[in-house]
Amino acid sequence: MGRYVIRRLLQMIPVFIGATLLIFLMVNVMGDPIAGLCGDRQCDPATATQLRKEFGLDKPVWQQYATYMGNVFTGDFGTAFNGQEVTELMSSAFPVTVRLTIVAVLFEVVIGITLGVVTGLRRGRPVDTGVLLVTLVVISVPTFVTGLLLQLLLGVKWGWISPSVSSEAPFDELIVPGLVLASVSLAYVTRLTRTSIAENRRADYVRTAVAKGLPRRRVITRHLLRNSLIPVVTFIGTDIGALMGGAIVTERIFNIHGVGFQLYQGILRQNTQTVVGFVTVLVLVFLVANLLVDLLYAVLDPRIRYA
Amino acid sequence: MRGATHARWAVCATAAALAATACGGGGDGGDSGGGDGSGIVSSSWGDPQNPLEPANTNEVQGGKVLDMVFRGLKRYDAETGEAKDMLAEKIETSDSQNFTVTVKDGWTFSNGEAVTAKSFVDAWNYGASLKNNQKNAYFFGYIDGYDKVHPEDGGKQTADTLSGLKVTGDRTFTIKLNQKFSTFPDTLGYAAFAPLPKAFFDDHAAWLKKPVGNGPYAVDSYAKGSVMKLRTWDDYPGDDKAENGGVDLKVYTDNNTAYTDLMAGNLDLVDDVPASQLKNAKSDLGDRYINTPAGIIQTLAFPFYDKNWGKDGMEKVRTGLSMAIDRKQITETIFQKTRTPATDWTSPVLGEDGGFKEGLCGDACEYDPKKAKQLIEDGGGLPGGQVKISYNADTGSHKEWVDAVCNSINNALGNDKACVGNPVGTFADFRNQITQSKMSGPFRAGWQMDYPLIQNFLQPLYYTNASSNDGKWSSKEFDTLVDKANAETDQAKAVDLFQQAEEVLRDDMGAIPLWYQNGSAGYSDRISDVALNPFSLPVYNEIKVS
Prior knowledge:
The complex is a heterodimer.
Chain A: H1 2-29, H2 45-54, H3 61-73, H4 86-121, H5 126-140, H6 143-157, H7 175-200, H8 204-211, H9 216-245, H10 248-253, H11 259-268, H12 272-300
Helix pairs in contact in A: 1-12, 4-5, 4-7, 4-9, 4-11, 4-12, 5-7, 6-7, 7-9, 8-9, 9-12, 11-12
Chain B: H1 5-19, E1 40-45, H2 60-69, E2 74-76, E3 83-85, E4 88-93, E5 98-103, H3 117-128, H4 146-149, E6 165-167, E7 172-176, H5 184-187, H6 198-202, H7 204-209, E8 217-223, E9 227-232, E10 246-251, H8 255-263, E11 269-270, H9 278-285, E12 289-301, H10 307-310, H11 314-323, H12 327-333, E13 339-341, H13 351-354, H14 369-378, E14 387-392, H15 398-413, E15 419-424, H16 427-435, E16 443-448, H17 454-462, H18 476-487, H19 491-508, E17 511-523, E18 527-528, E19 544-545
Parallel strand pairs in B: 1-10, 14-15
Antiparallel strand pairs in B: 2-3, 4-5, 5-7, 6-7, 8-9, 9-10, 11-17, 12-16, 12-17, 13-17, 18-19
């Protein structure tokens, strides 16, 4: 187990370097960011040169990357164009997005798996058909439509919630945005669980458990669900990264000042430091989430062992 | 409260498709505060792009804060745009080149420090100095010694202070310019010329976290990227004291969300009504929607460095293109009258006396498809048979109007391939292509005035090699007239000379004027006395909270 974890951690290094390099190059390809700083007029050349020097943009790309990575390992993620340290931006943005992600994942786990189990056990019944239909609609409607719709209905028309989230972004204000963010994944989790349950319901070990005379509840939770959850856990695990990085749309609709907001602004302003910094952390989150998923397999299914 | 009627239809349709939700009823929003002048106004805001220093802020979001926190020697009247003395007791000159400034007595910064002549001189020296990376440094370019503290060619800076600035007393200082510039005092209302307290120089980082100025508001707290709380400074010595208790500037990433928040009664003031909501704003807000002229003009510039566009005879093609654009229809249908068809190269906010001259462009800006076609043919046709209008696609919904302009040109020429839009991904990339002279056809050019002077609409944009002369248009005649106008001490004569220069620009069609832009804003029923100044900034200190 220990060796497996170490091997996985070592594998992260090339992935990490490759991913950051790619992002770094991509942002660089977009061109010189200094020109965008002076509004609809030309930056005076002397100031522009000076700024380029200060942000290290006058050096060749490989050297910029090397310096950047060197700094990252000492915890210095550089400075954004507005003079703020990127670490400072992160410390304000990540907690917000993490909270949003927690809400979203909770929705996926609680609602998604419950619906999945219910429909999986009642395959072909009206409940099953109804839920399938609803998930189909949710999957096919883009997030921004769901978001704007809920915002207008609940926020403006009925006045149940405030249409935008305050800058502190406490959990209770994030419930609706979290639901919107989770909606599509939630539908997938439901369908995934349903299929998995329906399939395993006819498996030998379930029949054995029933034959042993175990109570129905125990058969479902201990035997059926545990084995059916493996694909669902994989999905939710990888989804954590996707939810954190992909919250741009939701964060914009509800005015949440999280990672999506910083990334969006960073890209618009071609701020390499911000974009690469945030994406680097997101890459790390992705890698760690994946590792945790793989380790969870062993917990869920004792037949899987890591040497 | 009235809801967003049009949006509601869309929502109902979608909702019906989703879960057959019934539509009807309306939310109830809006909380009320006290009417004793202590109510707080909440207003939409965008994250400033640059550090919040007076000489480093060149966009409207940072400008909003500076406008509340600072007062300079002059201040532009919120209604007329006229430059009036604020901290200046008097600014005297006998030759339009040497000025003596006397600062009014009794002004302090909100931390108690007195505003003296030194506060100004130190601030200006800081702003001009190359090593401080101030993006508005060129504003000090008229002051003698600028070339030493800010060598344009990238050479080494040989002085730290401007030799043209001298403190001669506690409240007096002299300014020596490197050329005659009669209206120079009127430029001093620009934020870059604000005074700075000692705290700015002593502990710069702390100052940036919580700027200290001498305006009617003081920064109470500032959470970067999310909210800035400004509160009325009780001991403010000026006569434009705030009528409210303070302003909360909330950062919105999407102006649609800000508008929704306004509709829900969550926000008091939106000073940037999204283009998609302009249609509904009038019915949603009634007289709480304001739409007033601002000192902004949109034009199409041409790459004169490209031999296809710069060669002689092309002025006919450029004039032809101008006449092929149906400005009236586009401003009415796409912009819902938040733009006015341009008939000169300045802005109505200048007023007649200030140099705005309606109809100066004459026939060249009138829609006349027949004549347009004729002129373009006379000029040798479009280079390469097609014009591509470049614009940045990331902000400002430029696509809609560029497509409309192209449509108009295509209709006039009877050729549906005569004009196409050429979107550029990001603003920075767009600016890069411009500054590196890589444009091969006309491109979007917008200009928001720095100060309400006709000089500001002409010199930076069309003078040979001027800082914002993006198309590199050049005319000796124009330059001479501008120089003459700057040296002229009589305002009426100066304006006349500037207008002559503008006629030179017209005859060569150095840039096609499209429309004057208005500022638009919407506000909640909690607040009243809301107005936008000619810079399209809300006049916060006059807002009353009921």
